[in-house]
Structure formats: C-alpha cells, structure tokens
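Quick note —
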Amino acid sequence: MSEENPSEFINQFLGSTTANLLFTLILGFAAWLKSRCQNSNCQIHAGICECDSSLSELGEIKETLTTTQNTQRNMLKDILALVNGKERITVEPSLV
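Predicted structure written out below.
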C-alpha cells in the first residue's frame, strides 16, 4: 500500500470540507428565502386590474382546485361509463 503525502491529504480534506460548507450555506439560504416568500404579499397594479395575494393563499387555492378537478373528472368518467354501457337515464317530466 502506498503512503500518501500528508499535505495532499490535508488539501483534499480542506477541499471537501469547503464544498460541504458551501453547499450547507446555499441550502440554508434557499430555505430562509422560501420561508420569507411564503408570508409575503404579491401585488400587481396593471392598467386593467389589481391583484393582491400571498403564496400560502395560492397554495390553498391550488389544493382546492385540484380536489374540484378530481371530482369533476370522476363525474365525467361516470357519465362516460353510463353512455358506453348504453344505459338510459330517464328524466321525470316534472323535473324538466
């Protein structure tokens, strides 16, 4: 087994330590920036409309829309199953 030069070991150790420390700092900055953006309000003042919302509110709206879209998709699948199954839906004259 060949012996390495101690200065080479120190150089490699310092290089990997520096890379890990730099990665940790960048990751910490990204987490801090994300937490700051979650509570900030975005405002748009266009000539036609004005909009004011926060990212956390937009996330809640997205979740609600996804649930609604899934419900509508399932309803359409049920309708297609009825149509493809050639089952007839009768409508009572009092409801028309």
